[in-house]
C-alpha cells in the first residue's frame, strides 16, 4: 500500500528572481491542468450518459419521443394521466444528488479542516511524543499556521472551485505514478479465492468460468447496469474508479508513469510456463461461452513449445524499478514484433496467468495461507504482468486469485467485481459432474496465438529487474491468521463497532510485540464524494494508549471495570474518527495537498516536511465483505471469501489487512520483512489472537457480575 509520506521524494526547482509571481504561476498551472482533466472527464461522462441513458434504444429514437411530446402538448393531452402533477406535489423544490454536489461539499470541508487541522494533528501525535518533543512540535505547528499555511490554503481553495476533487488527481500522480521504486509488493495488492471451496480442480475449466463471469461484469459496467453502492444504505457512493477496471495498463515513464485506459478490448493475454498467448474473447459478435474458453485455455496448457530466448522472465520488467523498464520499453519495444506483442499485452482486457503451482488454504498446513498470499502478491517475480489493472491467477488445482495494480483504484473496487465473479462462477454458471464448464464445445475456434519476441539485447535488463524483484519478494514475511473463536456476532453483543474492537486489539498486540506505540494508518473510503478515494484514520490515540497501558498494568490497583471503561472510551473515539475521515473531515489528505503546494511554490515547511516523513509502522485496512449480497453465507457457510492483503509499508513495521467474514470468523493477512530483527509476522498474529481474547474477557467478566 502506497503512503502519503512518499511525496517527500519529489523535488521542485524554481529560480530566485521574481519568486512570488513565478511560483504563483507554477501553482496555477498545476491547478489549471487539474481542472482541465476534471472537465474532460465530465464531458466524457455526459456523452456516455446520453448514449447509455436511452439504452437499449439509440439517441436517434429521441426524435420520435420529441414528436410525441410536441403532439400531446398541441392536442393538450396529458399522456401520464395526472401522474406528473402528483409527482410534482410530492417532491421537494430541489433535489441535488451527491454525485453533483460532492465537489461543493469538498469546498466546505476545506474551511472546516483548516480550523481543526492543527488541533487534530497535534492530538494524533501526542501519545507518541514526550513532553519536550510535543512542545517542539506544537511550536512548529503554530509557526506553520501563521505562515505559510494561509498562502497554501488559498491555492487549495482555488483548486477546489475549479477541479472535481481537490485531492484525487494529485494523490494518483504523486503517491502512485511518480514513484520510481518497484510496484510489486510496494504498491500492488492481492485478493484470494473462496476460503474453503474449490468448485472444480480442472484449471482450464475454472479459468473458463471466471473469465466469462468477468466479461459479463464488464458488459454490465459498460452499460451502466450495476446498482451504485450506498453508504449506510442511503448515500450513493461515487463509481468513478470502476471505469478503469478493464482495458487498462500502467505505462512506465522516465519521470512519471501514466494510466492508459481504452474502450472495449476483445482479447486477453495468457502467460503459461514462460510463453505468451493472445486469446480472442468474442466469436460471431458474442462473448465466448465458458466451454469455449475452457477449450482455448486447455490448448495453451497442452502446448509443449518452449519459451523464446528471454521470454520466460520478460514480465519481471514490470516488477523492477520503473526507470530501467521505461528506458527498455523505449529502446527495445517501439518497433517490429516486440512492439506488436507488447501492444497486445497493454491493450488486453486484462492479463491471465495459468500458474503451474497449487495453492490454497489447507487446515493441515498452518503456513498454507502464507504461501498462497506470497504467490498472489509476487509469484516468481516474472509470472504476473504487474502493470495491468489486474492479473487473474488460476492455479493448477483450480484455486484462483487476483493481483491488482493500485494507481487506478482501491481494494473495495476490485472486491466488488470479485464478489460478482465468485457468485456467478459457483451459483449461475456451474460445472458438469466431471468438473468441466457447461455447454457445447466449438472446436472450430481459431487456436490461441503465440506472441513473438526478439529480445536478446534486452536480457541483461530483464535479469537485473528480476534480481531486484526477487530480493524484495524473498524479504516478505507473510502470515495468514484465521481467527474463529468469535466474530462480528459476539462483538455486536458487546455494543461495540467491530472495526474499533479489532483496531484496539491491534494496538494491544503491537504494544506487546514491540513494547511501544507507533503511528498507525487505517484506510477509510471517501467515495461519498465525487472521485473520492481514501483518507487516513490515525488509530493510535491518547484513549487507545491509556486502554493498552491499563491492560498491561498487572498491579491490583487497576480493575477490569476500569479497563472496560477505558476500552469503551477508546472505541467511541475511534468510531468518531472513522466517521470524520469518511465524511471528508480527516487531516492527512489535506496535509498531503498542502505539501504538494509547498513543493510547487518552492517554500520549505519544517512542519509539513516532518509530518509527511513520519513512518507508518503499523498500516491497516479492512477488506469489505458482501458488497453485493449475492451469496447467502448463512445458507452456504463454506462459500466465504478469504479477503486479501498488501506488502509491508515500513522496513521495521507491519502491514495488516483483515476481513470480517459472517458472524464467527475474522481473517488477518499480516506482512513484514525478514530483514527486520524487530518484526515477525507469525508472532504478531499470535499476539493479535491473544489480544482479541483478552478484550473479550473484559465483557465476559462484566456479564457474570
Automatic annotation (TrEMBL):
Domain Carnitine O-palmitoyltransferase N-terminal positions: 1-47
Topology of the protein relative to the lipid bilayer: Multi-pass membrane protein
Domain Choline/carnitine acyltransferase: residue ranges: 120-690
Keyword Glycoprotein included in the entry's annotation: no
Catalysed reaction, written as an equation: (R)-carnitine + hexadecanoyl-CoA = O-hexadecanoyl-(R)-carnitine + CoA
Active-site positions on this chain: 406 (proton acceptor)
Compartments reported by the entry: Mitochondrion outer membrane
Keywords recorded for this protein, A-Z: Acyltransferase, Fatty acid metabolism, Lipid metabolism, Membrane, Mitochondrion, Mitochondrion outer membrane, Transferase, Transmembrane, Transmembrane helix, Transport
Signal peptide residues on this chain, from the entry's feature table: none
Domain of life the protein comes from: Eukaryota
Transmembrane feature ranges: 60-77
Function: Catalyzes the transfer of the acyl group of long-chain fatty acid-CoA conjugates onto carnitine, an essential step for the mitochondrial uptake of long-chain fatty acids and their subsequent beta-oxidation in the mitochondrion.
Protein name: Carnitine O-palmitoyltransferase 1, muscle isoform
Amino acid at each position: 500500500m502506497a503512503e502519503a509520506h512518499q511525496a517527500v521524494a519529489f523535488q521542485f526547482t524554481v529560480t530566485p528572481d521574481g519568486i512570488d509571481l513565478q511560483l504563483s504561476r507554477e501553482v496555477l498551472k498545476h491547478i489549471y491542468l487539474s481542472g482541465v482533466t476534471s472537465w474532460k472527464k465530465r464531458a466524457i461522462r455526459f456523452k456516455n450518459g446520453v448514449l447509455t441513458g436511452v439504452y437499449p434504444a439509440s439517441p436517434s429514437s429521441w426524435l420520435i419521443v420529441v414528436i410525441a411530446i410536441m403532439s400531446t402538448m398541441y392536442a393538450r393531452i396529458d399522456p401520464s394521466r395526472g401522474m406528473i402533477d402528483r409527482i410534482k406535489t410530492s417532491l421537494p423544490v430541489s433535489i441535488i444528488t451527491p454525485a453533483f454536489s460532492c465537489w461543493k461539499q469538498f469546498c466546505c470541508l476545506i474551511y472546516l479542516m483548516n480550523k481543526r487541522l492543527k488541533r487534530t494533528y497535534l492530538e494524533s501525535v501526542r501519545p507518541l511524543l514526550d513532553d519536550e518533543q510535543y512542545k517542539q512540535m506544537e511550536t512548529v505547528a503554530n509557526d506553520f499556521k501563521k505562515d505559510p499555511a494561509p498562502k497554501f490554503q488559498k491555492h487549495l481553495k482555488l483548486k477546489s472551485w475549479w477541479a472535481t476533487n481537490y485531492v484525487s488527481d494529485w494523490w494518483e500522480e504523486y503517491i502512485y505514478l511518480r514513484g520510481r521504486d518497484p510496484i510489486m509488493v510496494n504498491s500492488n495488492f492481492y485478493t484470494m479465492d473462496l476460503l474453503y471451496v474449490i468448485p472444480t480442480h480442472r484449471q482450464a475449466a475454472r479459468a473458463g468460468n471466471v473469465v466469462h463471469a468477468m466479461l459479463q461484469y464488464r458488459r454490465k459496467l459498460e452499460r451502466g447496469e450495476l446498482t451504485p453502492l450506498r453508504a449506510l444504505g442511503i448515500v450513493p457512493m461515487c463509481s468513478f474508479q470502476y471505469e478503469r477496471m478493464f482495458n487498462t495498463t500502467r505505462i512506465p515513464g522516465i519521470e512519471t508513469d501514466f494510466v492508459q485506459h481504452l474502450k472495449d478490448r476483445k482479447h486477453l493475454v495468457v502467460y503459461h510456463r514462460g510463453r505468451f498467448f493472445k486469446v480472442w474473447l468474442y466469436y460471431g459478435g458474442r462473448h465466448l461461452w465458458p466451454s469455449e474458453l475452457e477449450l482455448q485455455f486447455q490448448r495453451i496448457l497442452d502446448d509443449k513449445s518452449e519459451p523464446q530466448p528471454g521470454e520466460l522472465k520478460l514480465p519481471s520488467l514490470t516488477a523492477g524499478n520503473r526507470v530501467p523498464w521505461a528506458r527498455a520499453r523505449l529502446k527495445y519495444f517501439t518497433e517490429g514484433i516486440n512492439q506488436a506483442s507488447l501492444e497486445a499485452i497493454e491493450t488486453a482486457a486484462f492479463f491471465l496467468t495459468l500458474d503451474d503451482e497449487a495453492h490454497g488454504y489447507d487446515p493441515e498446513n498452518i503456513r498454507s495461507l502464507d504461501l498462497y498470499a506470497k504467490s498472489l502478491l509476487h509469484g516468481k517475480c516474472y509470472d504476473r504482468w504487474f502493470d495491468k489493472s489486474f492479473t487473474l491467477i488460476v492455479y493448477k488445482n483450480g484455486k484462483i486469485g487476483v493481483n491488482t495494480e493500485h494507481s487506478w483504484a482501491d481494494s473495495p473496487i476490485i472486491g466488488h467485481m470479485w464478489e460478482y465473479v465468485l457468485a456467478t462462477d459457483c451459483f449461475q454458471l456451474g460445472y458438469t459432474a466431471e468438473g468441466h464448464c457447461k455447454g457445447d464445445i466449438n472446436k472450430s475456434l481459431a487456436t490461441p496465438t503465440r506472441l513473438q519476441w526478439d529480445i536478446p539485447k534486452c536480457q541483461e535488463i530483464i535479469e537485473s529487474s528480476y534480481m531486484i524483484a526477487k530480493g524484495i519478494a524473498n524479504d516478505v514475511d507473510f502470515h495468514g491468521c484465521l481467527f474463529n473463536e468469535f466474530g462480528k456476532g459476539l462483538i455486536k453483543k458487546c455494543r461495540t463497532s467491530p472495526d474499533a474492537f479489532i483496531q484496539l486489539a491491534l494496538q494491544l498486540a503491537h504494544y506487546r510485540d514491540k513494547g511501544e506505540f507507533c503511528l498507525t494508518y487505517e484506510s477509510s473510503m471517501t467515495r461519498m464524494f465525487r472521485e473520492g478515494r481514501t483518507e487516513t484514520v490515525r488509530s493510535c490515540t491518547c484513549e487507545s494508549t491509556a486502554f493498552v497501558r491499563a491492560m498491561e498494568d498487572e498491579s491490583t490497583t487497576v480493575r477490569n471495570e476500569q479497563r472496560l471503561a477505558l476500552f469503551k472510551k477508546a472505541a467511541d473515539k475511534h468510531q468518531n474518527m472513522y466517521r470524520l475521515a469518511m465524511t471528508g473531515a480527516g487531516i492527512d489528505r489535506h496535509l498531503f495537498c498542502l505539501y504538494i503546494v509547498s513543493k510547487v511554490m518552492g517554500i520549505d515547511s519544517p512542519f509539513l516536511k516532518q509530518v509527511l516523513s513520519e513512518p507508518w509502522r503499523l498500516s491497516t485496512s479492512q477488506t469489505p465483505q458482501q458488497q453485493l449480497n449475492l451469496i447467502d453465507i448463512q445458507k452456504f457457510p463454506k462459500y466465504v471469501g478469504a479477503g486479501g492483503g498488501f506488502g509491508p509499508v515500513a522496513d521495521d513495521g507491519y502491514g495488516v489487512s483483515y476481513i470480517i467474514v459472517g458472524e464467527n470468523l475474522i481473517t488477518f493477512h499480516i506482512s513484514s520483512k525478514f530483514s527486520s530483527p524487530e518484526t515477525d509476522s507469525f508472532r504478531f498474529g499470535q499476539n493479535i489472537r491473544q489480544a482479541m481474547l483478552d478484550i473479550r474477557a473484559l465483557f465476559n467478566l462484566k456479564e457474570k457480575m
